Structure formats: C-alpha cells, structure tokens
TrEMBL record:
Transferase among keywords: yes
Species: human gut metagenome
Domain Ketosynthase family 3 (KS3) per the UniProt entry, residue ranges: 1-215
GO biological process, one term: fatty acid biosynthetic process
Keywords, comma-separated and alphabetical: Transferase
Protein name, as recorded: Beta-ketoacyl-acyl-carrier-protein synthase II
PROSITE patterns linked: KS3_1 (PS00606), KS3_2 (PS52004)
InterPro entries membership: Beta-ketoacyl_synthase, Ketoacyl_synth_AS, Ketoacyl_synth_N, PKS_Beta-ketoAc_synthase_dom, Thiolase-like
UniProt keyword annotation of Transferase present: yes
Recorded GO MF terms: 3-oxoacyl-[acyl-carrier-protein] synthase activity
A Gene Ontology cellular-component term: cytosol
C-alpha cells in the first residue's frame, strides 16, 4: 500500500541455520479477529488467509447474495502447496512418538490444497463450480483463467477467484534453498526481490492471499 517491501527476518521459526533468513510474512496477524477457537482448529493458515480474503472480496463486490442464484456462483481457489505446515507438524509428531499412529482427524482436511475453495463455498452456500488449481507460481493465474472461462462458457454467472499461500516454514524454505531458488540476500532483504535484474539471486518467499469476484 505504501510501496514498502514486506521482506524482513523470518519470525515463524528459527531460521538461523538456514541459508535464507528472511521472507514476506503477514505482519501482526491475529486469528481471533476472524475465527473462534473451534473454527480455527479446522483451518491451516493458508485456509485462514483464503477465507479472510474471499470474505473481503464478496463484501466489497456489493453482491446481494439473497437475490443471487447460489447454484450459479462458484469458487476456484488456488494454492501452490496448500497446508504444508500442517503436514510438517503431523509428521514431526509421529516421528517423535513410539510408532503408534496418532494423527489428528483434521490432518488431511487441513492439508489438502482444495479445502480452501470448499470452506469458502460452505460459508456462503455457493453451489457452482468448486475446485483448486495447483500449478506452482502460476496457480492463481490459472484459477483466474478457469474462472473467466466458467462464465464465458455459461457454467456460472459469478466466480470467486483467488489464491493463498502460507509456506514460510522449515520444509519450504529448506527445500527451496536446496534448489538454490531463494534469494540469500540476508543483509539487504528489502531489495532482494528483483525479477529480471542482472544481480537477481533468487525469489523471495512470502505468504498471504488475494481474491477477485468475476461476473
């Protein structure tokens, strides 16, 4: 909003031993402003971001849902990796145990990338097309294209299109570091994201969500 880079030292975990020690995290996020404790147990962070962004988009659109045909409103929500943090935490819990399979019943629903689209539709009662596009960094672009085509071909009248990511965590940063894909400009993180620059040394990982209403 103010043209200031969001890149800063990682706070979600101790990144001291990682090659990349910074990311674009959502600052000052407080889930209690959006969900109750019972709800939030069901949601990975990427789904929380998705629900918040989709809600803002629906409210901002001015759609009168009481007058809309909910069967003609769909959701295509995108995520490159879904609930990676949930997956990681469950695996750590299992590895620390005695081999007895004690997994949360929310494990799979929290983890899968298409769950966000489902929860958005459940919240509003949308019954149109509902799925997730997963194609790495192009995921949300593909979701927008599919949403446009859903309207173009008469499959839906209105589409909620967006994407969310919450992968500032150990396996994500560590994995991309192993690929030499992330910037390691730890001494100057605010200038690390520089696509097409001759001095670019990788991308800057971030988190967040965005949503559009197409009609």
């Amino acid at each position: 909003e103010k043209g200031v880079s969001g890149a800063a030292p990682i706070t979600h975990f101790d990144a001291e031993k990682f090659k990349t020690k910074f990311a674009c995290e959502v600052k000052n996020y407080d889930w209690t402003q959006h969900f109750d404790r019972k709800e939030v147990r069901k949601y990975d962070l990427f789904t929380q971001y998705a629900l918040i962004a989709a809600t803002q988009a629906v409210e901002d659109s001015g759609l009168d849902l009481e007058k809309e045909d909910l069967e003609q409103i769909g959701v295509i929500w995108s995520s490159g990796i879904g609930g990676l943090k949930t997956f990681f935490d469950e695996c750590l819990g299992y590895a620390a145990g005695d081999g007895t399979p004690r997994f949360s019943p929310f494990f799979i629903p929290r983890m899968i990338a298409d769950i966000a689209a489902g929860y958005i539709s459940i919240k509003y009662g949308f019954m149109g097309p509902n799925y997730c596009t997963v194609s790495a960094c192009a995921s949300s672009n593909h979701g927008l294209i599919d949403s446009f085509n859903a309207i173009r071909f008469g499959v839906a009248d209105v589409m909620v299109a967006g994407g969310s990511e919450a992968a500032v965590n150990e396996p994500s940063v560590g994995g991309f570091n192993s690929m030499q894909a992330l910037s390691t400009r730890n001494d100057d993180p605010v200038h690390a994201s520089r696509p097409f620059d001759k001095d670019r040394d990788g991308f800057v990982i971030g988190e967040g969500a965005g949503a559009l209403i197409l009609e």
